[in-house]
Amino acid sequence: MSTSSLSAFPLGLSLSGVLSILFYLVLFVALLMTVIFLYHWLRYNLGVFRAIIVIGIYGVGLFFLMTTALGFLLSI
Amino acid sequence: MKFLEAGERAVLVVRRHWFVFLVEAIVIAALATLPLIFIALIPQSVADTVSVSERTANILGFLYMLWLTILWIILFVRWTVYFLDVWVVTDRRLVDVQQKWLFHRSVLTARLDRIQNISIDVEGIFATLIGFGDVKILTAGDDPDIIIRTARAPESVKQRILELHNQVIERNRQTFKDGVQ
Question: Cβ B58–A66 below 8 Å, yes or no?
Answer without folding.
Answer: no
